[in-house]
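P.,

For your records, the input lines for the assembly:
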Amino acid sequence: MEHSGITQSVWQATAARPDFSPLTQDTSADVVIVGAGIAGLTTAYLLCREGKSVAVVDSGPILSGETERTTAHLANAMDDRFVELERMHGVDGARLAAESHGAAIDRIERIIREEGIECDFKRVDGYLFTPDRDPSGLLEEEKAAAQRAGLSDVELVASAPLPGFNTGPALRFPNQAQFHPLRYLAALAKAITRDGGKIYAHTHIVETKGGDDAHVRTSSGRMITADAVVIATNSPINDRVTIHTKQTAYRTYVVAFRIKRGSVPAALYWDTLDPYHYVRLTEGEDADHDLLIVGGEDHRTGQADDGEERFNRLEEWTRERFSTKAVAFRWSGQVQEPVDCLGFIGRNPLDRENVYVATGDSGQGMTHGTLAGIIITDLIAGRENPWKRLYEPARSSGVRDLGEFVKDGANMALQYAKWLMPGDTDNEMDVPRGSGAVIRQGAGKIAVYCDEEGHLHECSAVCPHLGGIVSWNGTEKTWDCPVHGSRFDHFGNVISGPAKENLEPVHVAAKG
Ligand SMILES: Cc1cc2nc3c(=O)[nH]c(=O)nc-3n(C[C@H](O)[C@H](O)[C@H](O)COP(=O)(O)OP(=O)(O)OC[C@H]3O[C@@H](n4cnc5c(N)ncnc54)[C@H](O)[C@@H]3O)c2cc1C
Ligand code: FES
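Structure tokens returned:
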């Protein structure tokens, strides 16, 4: 199955991704891991180091999910902020969150050192600033909460160190980090196979089962049996409902600009807007330039199709504050926002004991994915883990506030109401070349894609997960489900879950 991302990230353009063959016969391993992003590969690597035999499978080439679309800030300055974490999980929970994400960065650094990986890992400061110079005292409160969470060296400074852009007061979080995620993970994939692990790419999983006869089955009918199953597909493909009521899929956008080398200090920068802007640097393509990577403009997956405007707004925001040159890259990707700010890592709820899951990454999937490796390896090895309870997938999650909860429910109901609404257009002949639209046909909805040659490709617009009506994403040329974020390429082939199956085919026509 081809992954059909249209935008390209700086990492995709600057790292060779190792490819692996599909699974062609039944096999077995101690642990089978579905998904070869940072969560799956880190888990596989750490299990291999413990002497376990592992088999990793991925529908696409490895690292072709959200991991190649990240901006790879490595932070224990928590995305949802410590004031909120404290409210949701108490002072102890906030402390464990800071400690565990800090430990994840340390583990990445240790692996890089032990394996001799060249991936531009660098310790940097992180700066949080408000758009309006903090009239509300938000930064003071956040500093106090961060310190209660154990980050005693967080300090309030007069401004982030950005030449030409006075941010006003900012919180400085020392000892954050950044790296090139694909270089790091390509090296982990190599280490996994060196240690006897097996990696199968282009192998789509349609069935997973725990218990005494634990196994996964591929779309071509091959089976991998194992003592334990780990689902690391970013959005779990084995859980129909439970987890998906506790997280929401968002699309987020990134622009990378050429800037004069050394003109902006290497650090991580975030503002407090909702959605917030996230900024970092990486090496440019030549000795004169760095790349300034700026992300933001998030929206719920499948609920907006205005990527061009969002990229433009990011460009405007950046040009008003930084001395930039040309735009070098633009891309978008998806994150899963958990209702209570933290990932879900551990035993899969309502399932057999030997099925594990890692999801709810939010904007901190690099550290959450690394924590998945650490926690799930401990659970499989039968060891205690100090963070197990915090990330327990079966925890009864609080919600940020009641208003949000009610809005979420209403939003979901609205998505199902699309069954009754008219389509994007009445006539498939109106769909422009290179674009897609949903058309009403009797009581049903058809997703119509018109390719660049004018051929129409039609499939059902009904998401095979739980019946949402997909929407066209013109930036990525995909069909995205607004209910729980499943995504399908323009021909209807599933890219990411929770759906495991493709959109149902319907008749094919040709445009006159
Ligand atoms: C624009 C953007 C910016 C971000 N910035 C940051 C940041 O600065 N810092 C940070 O920490 N995090 C960040 N994140 C989040 C982070 O990148 C992700 O959370 C993380 O990469 C997810 O890793 P993963 O292993 O869970 O999933 P993925 O990388 O998506 O891997 C899942 C894999 O599962 C495979 N799969 C799916 N279904 C099946 C199936 N049925 N059978 C077989 N295989 C299947 C997919 O092909 C995919 O390769 C960002 C994300 C985005 C999109
Ligand atoms: S992803 Fe759940 S209905 Fe589509």
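Two observations worth noting. DSSP finds nine helices and 24 strands in the chain. The two ends are 29 Å apart (CA to CA).

Regards
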